[in-house]
Each structure stands twice: as structure tokens, then as C-alpha cells.
Specification:
This protein is an alpha+beta fold. It contains 4 helices and 4 strands, in the order E-H-E-E-H-H-H-E. The protein has a 4-stranded antiparallel beta sheet with strand order 2-3-1-4. A hairpin with a 6-residue loop joins strand 2 and strand 3. The longest helix is centred in the C-terminal third of the chain and has 11 residues. It holds the Pfam family ABM.
Length: 101
């Protein structure tokens, strides 16, 4: 398996708004080849720190997703988000191969 974490910080007052956006996400990734699961994580001590976790069967499937049209479409929509502070957020992305379970 292969997992990707995208961590970003938002103003704590906007954390619930961002959580709502993800709760109503398009779910396009759910039908991507090799997709396993999606999580939105909130830091217990710093509520403005949010992490998106994607799990794929393997790195090849993940790369196919990020190079595809649905991925581009989703991220273009983010750039057009009315709240420019949220639209400008750039996550720190970390990628991992699962080596034990």
C-alpha cells in the first residue's frame, strides 16, 4: 500500500469551514484505480492543523491519479474558492510506502 499525507494550517476559526468542505467533497478520488481510503485528520492540540490522508494500493496508482484530469479539475476548483486565504493554502505533502502492517 501507499499513503500520502497533505498537511496544512488554517486559522482556527476557519477549521470547521474547511472540515465542512471535505465532508462534502466531490469523491472523485474514490473511483480512481487503486484507491483504498480517504481521511481528513485534525490535530488534537492545534485544531487549525488539518491533514488529508489518501491511501492507494501502490505508488503507480497514486501517480496515475495525480496526473489525471479529475485531480486537475478538483485542484482548479480549490484555486477559485471565494475565501482567498483558504484558496492560497499550500500543503506539505509526504508520501510513504507501507512496509509493515
Amino acid at each position: 500500500m501507499y499513503t500520502v499525507f497533505s498537511t496544512f494550517d488554517v486559522n482556527e476559526e476557519k477549521a470547521e469551514e474547511v472540515i465542512g468542505i471535505y465532508q462534502n467533497r466531490s469523491r472523485l478520488v474514490d473511483s480512481a484505480e487503486g484507491f483504498v481510503d480517504f481521511f481528513l485528520l485534525q490535530n488534537d492540540k492545534r485544531p487549525g492543523e488539518l491533514t488529508v490522508q489518501l491511501i492507494f494500493n501502490n505508488k503507480k496508482d497514486y501517480l496515475q491519479w495525480v496526473r489525471g484530469e479529475d485531480f486537475k479539475r478538483i485542484h482548479e476548483l480549490e484555486k477559485k474558492y471565494p475565501d482567498q486565504e483558504l484558496a492560497a493554502v499550500i500543503p506539505k505533502v509526504s508520501q510513504y510506502k507501507v512496509v509493515a502492517r
